[in-house]
Design brief:
With about 300 residues, the chain is of the alpha/beta class. It is about 40% helix and about 15% strand. S-adenosylmethionine (SAM) binds near residues 32 and 100.
């Protein structure tokens, strides 16, 4: 159930430009990055953390894993709402924002959370089980077209239509899918080809998780907000684990790293770039050998320019 932090030193090195600064860890998880960040900050530094999972927040506030450090505070919310949360803490500007996206090992490894086809459990998949719709509830109401779109667009599953048809047929026979084991069985029968080393349900599980947690929308919102929050020279560090996330981060940084010309006003001065792309980092072979979850990770680093937003 332990979470092995990916790109720990690399992320902290990229994020901290001044030890006296104010930083936000938008994905606390089990505090791997936060722990090293606190070691790097001076007594004047400040670290705020966010996680949408109440269990992550509990880990930071209770029991043996509790963080007792006057420079630290943690808040239960989505990073899409970080500006409001920071404002309530009297913070309007940051020297750095870290997002280490996706799910943590304690989430995946807990059958009751319903994230994994490796364990049988209720098909929930919400990172924040206190709100929103579970994956099972979505499967119970979505029509064939909606199911196909979600499984195709977020899972990049070639057999999305076949999986959707099988799910609807099962529901109409009075036996809707309620567990991870049932979903794996339905998908395994609908997906005809096998990808080497991959469970046939991998893509459908990824798709439902992204949909249920609105992961791509939340990420886009956080990136837009980061432009307003970061001080000039402040760093944005984002670690992604699948190509849909990384494409959003890459496109955002590329778009903001160029002077923007308004096509409707071609003679007006271009709007100067708001970000400078700094690095794209992959885990070392040694890290991937020690932690297979690191294999798909990509970290992108950008720096806020002087330009007002
Ligand atoms: C990969 S883990 C982070 C691990 C952490 N860096 C560590 O070293 O322990 C991702 C965490 O981000 C949280 N998370 C994912 N999306 C989020 C969102 N939109 N807002 C807040 N937290 C989110 C998840 O609940 C999970 O705990």
């Amino acid at each position: 159930m332990l979470h092995t932090t990916v790109l720990l030193r690399e992320a902290v090195d990229a994020l901290v430009t001044t030890p006296d600064g104010t930083y936000l860890d938008g994905t606390y998880g089990r505090g791997g990055h936060s722990g090293m960040l606190l070691q790097r900050l001076s007594p004047r530094g400040r670290l705020l953390a966010i996680d949408r999972d109440p269990q992550a927040v509990a880990a930071a506030t209770q029991g043996a894993t509790r963080v007792e450090d006057p420079r630290f505070s943690i808040h239960h919310t989505s990073f899409a709402h970080m500006a409001e949360t920071l404002a309530l803490q009297g913070v309007s500007k940051l020297h750095g924002l870290l997002l280490d996206l996706g799910v943590s090992s304690p989430q995946i490894d807990d059958p009751a959370r319903g994230f994994s086809f490796r364990f049988d459990g209720p098909l929930d998949m919400r990172m924040d089980p206190t709100r929103g719709e579970s994956a099972a509830d979505f499967l119970a109401r979505a029509d064939e077209r909606q199911l196909t779109e979600v499984i195709r667009d977020y899972g990049e599953e070639r057999f999305a239509l076949q999986v959707a048809k099988a799910l609807v047929a099962r529901r109409e026979s009075g036996n809707p899918v309620r567990t991870t084991g049932e979903l794996s069985d339905v998908v395994a029968r609908a997906v005809r080809t096998r990808e080497a080393g991959q469970n046939p349900a991998t893509r459908t599980f990824q798709a439902l998780r992204i949909f249920v947690n609105a992961e791509l929308e939340e990420l886009q919102q956080a990136l837009n907000t980061a432009l307003d929050l970061l001080l000039p020279g402040g760093r944005l560090v984002v670690i992604s684990f699948h190509s849909l996330e990384d494409r959003i981060v890459k496109t955002f940084i590329a778009r903001e790293s160029k002077d923007v010309i308004d096509r409707r006003a071609p003679f007006a001065a271009p709007k100067p770039m708001r970000l400078k792309s700094i690095a794209r980092v992959k885990p070392s072979d040694a890290e991937v050998d020690a932690n297979p979850r690191a294999r798909s990770a990509v970290m992108r680093v950008a720096e806020r320019t002087e330009v007002a937003s």
